[in-house]
Amino acid sequence: MKKISSGKVREIYEVDDDKLLLVVSDRISAFDYILPALIPNKGKVLNQLSRFWFDFVKDIIPNHVISTDIKDFPKEFQTQEFEGRSMLVKKLKMLPVECIVRGYITGSGWKSYKENGTVCGITLPENLQESEKLPMPIFTPSTKAEIGNHDENISFEQVCEMIGEELATKLRDKTIEVYSKCAEYAASRGVIIADTKFEFGLDENGELVLGDEVLTPDSSRFWPAKDYVVGTSQKSFDKQYMRDWIKSSGYDPETKAPIPDEVVTTTENKYIEAYELITGKKFE
User: Most buried one in 132, 136, 170, 213, CB count within 10 A?
Assistant: First the structure.
């Protein structure tokens, strides 16, 4: 199989002219660095949680999934190594936009709001507190950067210039619709989805299709609802724990120094807890 991409977490193989095989590794990245530790089971959690969400929102928008059953994969991938962490998908023409949606004010959005009361050119109400729920989810897109570079926030108007107003409007509306349905469901399971990012592509007929990953701990901020307190940063089920450890410990990702076992184990447990809470299934 021809490997066509090796990202921070995913390996992408070309199966034929129409299909790709996505393999989700146990790598973890933070602050645009791939860290030297592998997080056991992380790839399986991401893959299986994406599969759950793709199925959950298929009434809103079609997705690129063909199969997650290794019996349907090319024979080279029908081994235990790829079980549970791989997905056979339709090849799409991916759009050059990270479709970020925020339901709460946190992270870089909070930083921008404190500076000038806006996020990606959207003016928000005055006197919001950190981690506060926004009156309505907002679409705050960014560019897609190469590994090692930072994504750059852009305005909706810039998205229109890049791909045209009609497609940009559909992209924004579908992003918010998918997020809203999933956030409502997650809340019923005790999980707040503060924000997330989606990626979309066009199929052979020019139709908009949801691709990449959906609402995983790598692409989203998941907060335990029982611990939620407005006015401060939140506990989380996602890789924010790893980011926070890096900041508090003074660890320098550039050095590639070993990461303590207890940090790795805690991170693994947070990923698994998120999966089990959201799906209602025991992770296996």
Answer: 213
